[in-house]
Each structure stands twice: as C-alpha cells, then as structure tokens.
Amino acid sequence: MPRDSLKSIDILRHELKALRFILDNFHAGKLAADGLPPREDFQSAQGRALYDSIVKAPDRKSAERTIAELELEDVDIDSFLHLSGDHYYTYPALVRERAAAIRTGKLTVEGA
To answer: What is the pLDDT of residue 11?
Structure first.
C-alpha cells in the first residue's frame, strides 16, 4: 500500500465498489460466502449496513428492495443500485487487505 493513511470517504468509496460487485455476484452463485470479506472488514457503518442487506437477503431482488429503503450518509442509493459491479472484482480483496492493515496499525484512517 503506497500510503499510510486514508480518508474515511476513500474507504467508503472502495467499500461501495466491493459491495456493488458482491451484490452483482453473491446471489447469482458466482461468489461463495467464503469469498466475501468478513463484515468486520468493512470500516464504515454504511458499508456494514449494505453488506447486511446483501448477505442476509434470500435473493438479489430482496437485497435491492432492502437497499432502496436505506438512507445512508454519503451514499447515493439510486446510483449504487443502477451501476454495474462487473469491473470491481478486485475490491473485495482490497477491503480485506485494508482492514488487516488498519488492525495492525500499518494503515490509519484520517480523522478516526
């Protein structure tokens, strides 16, 4: 990792990309539960709320309905639901990597 600190908004932005990829692939059977970053690896409350909405839903349509009802600070839910996550396949691993770096103190979150 090139930097030793990140802004909270950058973490959220990357988590949203990971979550968009997860939404597109988890219920389609293209991403197994053991391929998901653990919930605790999501540093933002918004990321954890979206994660819960996706993995706890019985199917994608249910996840999308739950997500549509969320009101999350700094998250445009309409955009989140209409974007494609096809190109975000590296972001779930990035969430894991950054969470591990934060836990070990190799990376800090500015303002946290």
So the answer is: 95
Instruction: Tell whether the model's pLDDT for residue 2 goes beyond 60.
Output: no
Burial class (CB in 10 A: 0-12, 13-18, 19+), 30: exposed
Single-letter code of the amino acid located at 25: N
Contact between 18 and 92 under an 8 Å Cβ cutoff? The reply is yes
> H/E element holding 36?
none
Q: How far apart are CA 68 and CA 104, in angstroms?
A: 35
78 pLDDT more than 60:
yes
Block residue for tokens 């190109």: 87
Beta partners for 21?
A: none
- Answer for the pair 98, 1: CB distance below 8 angstroms, yes or no: yes
How far is 54 from 47, CA to CA, in rounded Å?
11
